[in-house]
Design goal:
- The structure is a single chain.
- The protein is an alpha/beta fold.
- It has a single domain (9-317), classed as TIM Barrel.
- The chain is built from 12 helices and 10 strands.
- It has helices at 33-43, 52-55, 64-80, 108-128, 150-167, 191-200, 213-218, 223-232, 260-272, 299-316, 320-328, 332-343; strands spanning 9-11, 47-51, 84-89, 132-136, 141-142, 172-176, 185-186, 207-212, 236-241, 282-284.
- Helix 4 packs parallel to helix 5.
- It is globular.
Length: 346
């Protein structure tokens, strides 16, 4: 096993949420980012995940110079709280210009808007002091298959990534795959698709992935296997840990809250690969339950971090000789009993 890692944690300001879900309005009052910021260190987090307009609200009405100035001012606020920006993601799924996709829209004008927004996101990244862009390709797909030529559309996506790589040779791009929601059919549904696309870019060394637990589950896959695959390629640059009750909407439940063994295996694959030793964050993408009272609206973050660290200890205290003996004897029933007993503290 790798040398023990001191993990760093991050979350995005959207994770202290207003309690809305796909089927109802808000149940908690909004909290300004200025009031969220002091909570990071208090909860044990060092990094902040950003959408572009989290850092620079109203950016579409600004010039590039104004955007860069705003981002630099925002970084000073992070510095004052001892925080760093982990990544910035262009928010391409809210605009009326990206209702049918951004980089893969049938409209050339809308594709250009998405690309320009990507360039401005890179400007914000530099202002905030991070080299990592995350691409959640939310609307890059179709509601009906006949609406787009998938081969052509994915070529447009590849071209957009190449242009963003050329815009700033110092950045990296992590693709965050998801099989559905909000689009019915996504073009890049799994990490395998994302990495295959990465290898087709002009600089594959600068394109990797971010894996979200719930997204892998929604694809019918095991998140730990998806992480292992990306780690094999040296391309797991961030994670969004959470949990999910089956093939439903993206629930963003607290990490380990649904399936503790599944969470254990995610922690194990990260721990054994030495994830975090190159500065990677343990990122969370978790939401407080809709029924949660405002006074408890950060408990899901504290709980997820606590569960992760508890599972790190379970990984490190696993009896590897006993496990190896079960494997050698092909006694998988015995091994299963041991794993469950270990997780139960027996």
């Amino acid at each position: 096993m790798s040398k023990p890692t001191q993990y760093r944690f991050s979350f995005g300001p959207w994770n202290i949420s207003e309690g809305a879900d796909p089927f109802g309005p808000e149940t908690r009052k909004p909290i300004s980012f200025a009031k969220k910021l002091p909570l990071y260190k208090k909860l044990g987090f060092d990094g902040v995940q950003f959408h572009d307009d989290d850092a620079v609200p109203g950016m579409d009405a600004m010039t590039p110079a104004q955007i860069i100035s705003k981002a630099r001012a925002f970084k000073r606020m992070l510095d004052d709280h001892g925080l760093v920006a982990e990544f910035v993601a262009p928010r391409l799924w809210f605009s009326a210009r990206t209702v049918d996709g951004g980089f893969t829209s049938n409209s050339a004008a809308d594709r250009q808007y998405a690309l320009d927004r990507g360039f401005r996101t890179i400007d914000i990244m530099r202002g905030l002091g991070t080299d990592l862009m995350v691409l959640w390709l939310a609307r890059e797909g179709t509601y009906i298959r006949e609406a787009k030529n998938a081969r052509v559309a994915m070529g447009w996506l590849l071209d957009a990534i190449n242009k963003m790589l050329a815009y700033d040779p110092g950045i990296r791009i992590a693709i965050e795959p998801k099989p559905n929601e909000p689009m019915d059919h996504a073009y890049i549904p799994t990490i395998g698709h994302a990495l295959a696309l990465a290898y087709r870019t002009d600089d594959p060394s600068r394109v990797g992935g971010l894996i979200e637990s719930a997204h892998a589950i929604l694809a019918g896959l095991d998140p730990s296997d998806e992480m292992a695959y990306a780690l094999l390629h040296g391309k797991l640059w961030s994670v969004h840990l959470n949990d999910q009750n089956g093939l439903k909407f993206d629930e963003d439940k607290s990490f380990g809250a649904v399936d503790l063994r599944r969470a254990f295996n995610q922690v194990r694959v990260l721990e054994e690969a030495g994830y975090g030793q190159k500065g990677e964050f343990i990122g969370l993408d978790v939401k407080a339950m809709r029924a949660t009272k405002p006074v408890d609206a950060t408990k899901h973050l504290a709980n997820s971090r606590e569960f992760f660290l508890a599972l790190v200890e379970k990984v490190r205290t696993l009896n590897r000789k006993k496990e190896a003996a079960f494997i050698a004897a092909r006694d998988y029933e015995g091994m299963e009993r041991y794993i469950i007993s270990h997780l139960m503290g027996k």
